[in-house]
Amino acid sequence: MAITWLHARFIEVKLDRFKLLDNIKDVHENKKPIQTLVESTDAMLEAFTKEVRAFYNSPESSVFVDYPKNTIDSILWETVNTIQMAAVNELNHADLPFLIEFLSTDPGNEKQAWELWSKYWSSLRYTAHLDLHT
Known about the structure:
Helix content is 66%, strand content 4%. By secondary structure, the chain is mainly α. The chain has one domain. It starts with a strand and ends with a helix.
């Protein structure tokens, strides 16, 4: 089942952007393992999925969220997806300040944030990035 922006707005089930931001800051500032961030994000996503499934009375459905890039929620979900794919994305502590900046985007500045997001990830030299992987 795909939960579109309209559906998610209608049922008022959302992830807490500020809670996720606090979790990223905590891992970054306290030098906790990236896996700690992955686990806390997974827990948030699991609770979201449970609420959506309950709303639709569909306990076995997978949930896919699709927000237009001109919404602040698209930034939240891109951050969630990046954290969930931490191993594949070779996410490390050096990336956390950028995740914090991206997730801190003010509404109305989504286009600029997405441009910076694309530039950041395309600019990385992955061999050097791998050396930083924690």
